Amino acid sequence: MQILPFYLLCDESGSMSGDPIEAINEALPELHHEISTNPTVADKTRFCLIGFSSSANVLQPLVDLSDIDEVPALAAGGLTSYGDAFRTLLRCIEADVAALKAQGHEVYRPVAFFLSDGIPTDDGWEQAHKELTQSRFCPKIIAFGIGDAEAATIGQVANFRAFIQQEAKVSPAQALREFASSLTRSIVRSASSIAADGGSGFSLAVDETVPGFSTVSLDKL
Asked: Which range is least confidently modeled, 17-31, 91-105, 120-134, 198-212?
């Protein structure tokens, strides 16, 4: 069977407390429902949730969402730090790909959704990001920035698509609900495209525009 692994790296810094973190925690059950109740999607995808601030923790190891009752909630605290998140992601992907292949699956290049609401406080995160993106396990990275996140930094993180919250257009909570909806649609559409062609390939179906966000041009960064 062909499997498409999805990873969600979500900033859990202190500034995410209140409405922003609540918006994500309200939306994750919807993602769980959409995937777990759709056999086509559940069979073709695996999902992992990583929360990060000053350090990164795997909140939900890579799993078929139809096999669990609920997705763990995020909890805000600490400063915004990127390096440990990228190192943790790379370790997870290496282990997950090995495990999936040992089970006899073919594995598509993983997809990582990255969400941050601030400027990284760790000076060495670029090296961790370089090690991730130069690895043979490099995922396709879609990055979203809200709040104080800078377009240049979000564009540097992404290698596939990048978005930044539109100032004064929507609240962080509204933007995060749109982010979660986009994530859900992307996973469902991408998995469905695998099934449509009999598993011989897939199209990464990520929204080109998301309400409340401006697209960051990767070519200019």
From this structure: 198-212
- What range defines the domain where residue 74 resides? 2-220
Residues 6+ apart with CB under 8 A from 71: 28, 29, 31, 32, 49, 60, 65
When pLDDT is averaged across residues 139-144 and rounded to a whole number, the result is 96
Which domain CATH number covers 70? 3.40.50.410
**Structural domains of the chain, count:** 1
Please give the share of the chain, as a percent, with pLDDT higher than 90.
71
Largest CA distance in the chain: 49
Angle at 124 between CA 148 and CA 62, to 5 degrees: 80
Distance CA 118, CA 90 (A): 22
Beta bridge partners of 46: 5
**Cα torsion at 143, 146, 147, 149 (round to 10°)?**
10
d(CA 140, CA 133): 9
Query: Is the CA virtual torsion 5, 142, 50, 130 positive or negative?
Result: positive
d(CA 173, CA 58): 23
Q: pTM above the 0.90 mark?
A: yes
Q: Average of pLDDT values for 48-62?
A: 97
Distance separating alpha carbons of residues 10 and 16, to the nearest angstrom: 10
- Among candidate residues 120, 153, 158, 130, the one with its CA nearest the CA of residue 142: 158
